[in-house]
Amino acid sequence: MSLEYIAPDWPASKNIRCLTTTRKGGFSRNLYKGLNLGMRVNDDIKHVQENRQLLKHDLNLPNDPIWLDQVHGSQVIQLLDTKTKNLSADAAYTKEVGVICAVLTADCLPVVFCDQSGSYVALAHAGWRGLLNGVLENTLQALPVDNVDIMCWLGPAIGPNKFEVGEEVSEQFVAKDVAHGNSFRVQSDSKYLANIYRLAKNILSSNGVKNIYGGEYCTYTQENSFFSYRRDGQTGRMATLIWKKY
């Protein structure tokens, strides 16, 4: 039942805590074997609840994470207290101590934000639709600090050798910014391999973020550590969390 986590290697303020869960440990079985934290993937709800309680106990979390109703969109919300629930958004930020931002992923990219002083934290769920429609830009805009003072960590996502997309996806990104052309490799006449990490780095860099970390995992190929929707279809979800400690 031992749990394992991925923690950022970044110079964040000491009052910031951040991690991504792996699938290791937990109560879920069969297709969801391990620490599935997603309630809406047809897993046994009792097992998911047990997994969430296990996570809270194992990390000694100060409060329950605030789980968003993720819709592959670009809306960002501010979390003002620990009681917030049922919010439809794909990114959240807070300045409140003990309020835990959380997103669920199984190939999409979790992007974590904090400022140099540790005053604000934020977290975005970024699939290709969210990246295209501005979820990272909107998160940066919501944070009331200069972008040059923000650092970001790119958590585990599908790697550049496995993320196949249609030609229309590549065309939409390049139409938005020609610099995105370096994030796609031709796979066949109508298919491309997309580098979701590079897309995120391009967007963050073009908006003045200089300190960007992470981007070295592949949820698709690292089957023992991560759930992957592209690999398995019906599967579980990992969680990325960030909060300010008491």
Write the layout of secondary structure elements.
Layout: E1 5-6, E2 16-21, H1 45-59, E3 66-69, E4 76-78, E5 87-88, E6 91-94, E7 101-105, E8 109-115, E9 121-126, H2 128-133, H3 135-142, E10 150-154, E11 164-166, H4 167-176, E12 184-186, E13 191-194, H5 196-206, E14 211-214, H6 229-232, E15 238-244
Parallel strand pairs: 3-5, 3-7, 4-6, 10-14
Antiparallel strand pairs: 1-2, 2-15, 6-9, 7-15, 8-9, 8-10, 11-13, 12-13
Structural commentary:
With 246 residues, the chain is an alpha/beta fold. It has a single domain, classed as CNF1/YfiH-like putative cysteine hydrolases (4-Layer Sandwich). It is built from six helices and 15 strands. The protein has a six-stranded mixed β-sheet, with no helix packed on it. It is globular. The model has no long low-confidence stretch (mean pLDDT 97).
Would you summarize the structure shown here?
22% of the residues lie in helices and 26% in strands. The protein is of the alpha/beta class.
- State the distance separating the first and last CA atoms: 28 Å
Report the top-level CATH class.
Alpha Beta
Largest sheet report: 6 strands, mixed
Multimeric organization: single chain
* Extended strand count: 15
Structural class computed from helices and strand pairing = alpha/beta
- The CATH architecture classification is 4-Layer Sandwich
Look up the CATH topology.
Answer: CNF1/YfiH-like putative cysteine hydrolases
- Overall structural domain count: 1
Strand share of the residues? 25-35%
> How many helical elements?
6
Mean pLDDT: 97
- Describe the strand arrangement of the main beta sheet, using strand numbers: 1-2-15-7-3-5
Low-pLDDT regions: none
Given the C-alpha coordinates, what overall shape results? globular
CATH superfamily: CNF1/YfiH-like putative cysteine hydrolases
Radius of gyration: 17 Å
**What is the helix content?**
10-25%
The sequence of SSEs as H and E is EEHEEEEEEEHHEEHEEHEHE
